[in-house]
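Audit log entry. Action: structure prediction of a protein-small molecule complex. Ligand: LFPHGCPZ. The ligand was supplied as SMILES and no pocket hint was given, so placement is left entirely to the predictor. Protonation state taken as written. Sequence taken verbatim from the request; no trimming, no tag removal. Recorded inputs:
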Amino acid sequence: MTVYHRSAMRGALLYLVLSVVWLQLVGYLLSSFFDQSADQLRWQLINGYAWVLVSAGLVFLAGVRISRLFGKGEHRADGERLRQAAAVFDCTREGVLVTDPNGLIVHVNRAFMTITGYARDEVLGRRPNLFKSGRHGADFYQEMFASLGSRGEWSGEIWNRRKSGEIYPQWQTIRVVRDDNGQVSHYVAVFSDISAIKDSEHELAYLAHHDPLTGLPNRLLFSDRAEQALASSQLHKRGCALLLVDLDHFKNINDSLGHHVGDQLLKSVAERFRGLFAPGVTLARLGGDEFAVLVENCSQPAQAAVLAQRIIDALKEPLRLENQLLFINASVGISLFPGDALSAGQLLRNADSALFKAKSAGRDGYALYTEELTAHAQQRVEIAFELRRALQQQELRVHYQPVHDLATSRLIGVEALVRWEHPERGLVSPAEFIPIAERTGLIAQIDAWVMEQACRQMRQWQEAGVALSFVAVNVSSRLFARRELYEQVARVLHVSGLDPACLELEVTESAVMDDPEVALEQMHRLRELGVRLAIDDFGTGYSSLLRLKRLPVQKLKIDQGFVAGLPWDEDDAAIVQVIIALARSMGMQVQAEGIEQREQAAFLLEHACGMGQGYWFGRPVAAHQLDWDRAPAIN
Ligand SMILES: Nc1nc2c(ncn2[C@@H]2O[C@H](COP(=O)(O)O[C@H]3[C@@H](O)[C@H](n4cnc5c(=O)[nH]c(N)nc54)O[C@@H]3COP(=O)(O)O)[C@@H](O)[C@H]2O)c(=O)[nH]1
């Protein structure tokens, strides 16, 4: 039972007792005063009316008390609600601003002051246009008031000005408050400062569109800008040039000096390139060591070529990193809009084909896109695709070319050369697919496979009693630069059980001289395994004799280009003699390749070249086709 019930019960009981006492007392008094029952009846009636009158008075008093009681409760609840609202209003992190129907500010909360920098007194009685940033036009405010008029509410992003003058974004909701008569009594605006969110959005957008290392636009932003530039060029009937720049042998820097130095170098290169171009030119880093330059208003190949040369020349001076000077070159591919391509994607692909051409032509230069390049590029893509399949479907074969001892003319070794038995095209020359395999990275897989086959084959020959000193395999520059080459060779030797001294690894002179320090380290590691090392195509690179002397190499292979002129071409004859003398002076064996005539073999024998290989001795053939007894007479 509540307090109210108990007090009501008490009142009712009191009324009951008083009524009974009153009735008994009046009845007793009337019977004692009056003998006549008619008088007694009249007074009882008067008493009844008097009691009804008193009761009505009591009911009135009770009603007043009750309504007072309820009235007090309601007021208490209202007060509580108001106190809570005021606390929320003041504690909320959202700014709150209340205006009267005329738009004059009548109230602001604490968060409002924190966000805007204004004190309460500075804004009360003023209009919210005090905070206008000037970023929004009249349309914006018209729409806002139209929404308030029709829906009684407006929400949206608005840029306002703090007291400090700083312009900032806020998310704001404005509500119209109406009184009991439906008249506008107030406008209440609740807003939050969204600068931090905007900053994060900007940061995310920046990260998504820029390369974090150099701060240059990335591929996404570059493609976007290229699309825009092309659209604008089309409209204004102007030309554009896209230059794709690739650093030559950058991988060697990463591999030999570490990624930290590689990163520093990329930053320095980006800095140097930045200094070359006027503001209208977009320079981007597309990934790895690949940069792109988009030049608007450049329609002539000659103009683009000048820029390409400027890029190449910019790297002629060494780059100064923390404590060392580094040299790096670049190759550039150029494609022009609208002459070469009509879309940004095509322009990039064409520039890539031209870049490939520049690299194939010996690097450190530029090449312009031509239509034939597309056909070649297409062909390259197709071959790369098919080559992957060929590896899986085991379409590759290993052929062996005999190597003869020139003194005895006997077959003493073989060189393993890969062949592709294409299901439709027949035997495809490695000269066609090896460069593509090198570019796509498939070469490492191919070389590893050839090495495994050659070692197994050599073991089989040895088990069959064939007296063969070595089997030579080619190691591409790509595989040679990899640290895992050592593990790979060790694994193949272990699996095949071949004596390491019977395996000869041929590395081209250019692969060695690309980065002699890395080559030196790699060669020493390989020598620890006990394998033999030969420098292939010797004479075509620019070997430093000092460096050559330090290399743990057992053989120099004279490039077939010099052998071709023997014995009549004096220059070739002189070069060959020098190479032989050089090899011998460094205690290396020397082997000539590309011997097609007896006279060439005779010249080489006469000048103390130890070994020879070429069509005159025998072409590369399948393992079972080798003629072990062939020893053609040289003299
Ligand atoms: N990384 C790898 N490269 C490989 C592998 N197999 C081959 N190659 C390289 O491909 C290029 C072309 O090779 P190929 O068509 O096999 O040509 C070799 C010989 O057939 C050819 N040769 C040999 N003797 C003569 C000759 O008397 N005349 C003549 N015109 N050509 C001849 O020379 C090529 C051998 O060259 P080399 O390797 O320098 O000893 C070629 O660059 C191969 O290196 C492979 O598995 N991996």
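Audit: result stored. Residues 401, 415, 417-418, 429-431, 434, 443, 447, 450, 474, 476, 536-537, 560, 593-596, 613-615, 620 surround LFPHGCPZ (CB under 6 Å). The first helix runs from residue 3 to 33.
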